[in-house]
Amino acid sequence: MHPYKRSARVGDLIREEIADMIMNKIKHKNLGFVTVTGAKVSDDLRNATVYISVLKVEDAEKTVRKLSSLSALFRGELGRRLKMKYVPSLTFKIDESIQYGMKIDKLLNEIKSERGPHDEDEDLL
Predict the structure, then answer these.
(1) In what order do the strands lie in the sheet with 47-54?
(2) pLDDT digits over 55-101, tens only?
């Protein structure tokens, strides 16, 4: 028995395959630098949400629209690459966790700079 659910394993496969397709098959100049950060597949394996990160945040929505318009191409290629009864329909979304992590890091650095270097020694006691 596998240590985690089938939908999670299929999500990992879809993430890897779509990342490979974007890197090697899609030759669109307006796509920019895209990283596939994850894929969440429903338990019935009919729907998949693919999370992406874009280098230029201002191009994020345009990139999602472009990838969404290519979802039929991705599904067809996934059907050829993966041996599955059904290929899930794909929805592309921006992965917000990276921006959230950067915001938390910024807040922690602000707190650290407000406390000053002498306060750090008191925390060690």
Answers:
(1) 34-41, 47-54, 89-94
(2) 887 888 888 889 999 899 999 999 999 888 889 999 999 988 777 88
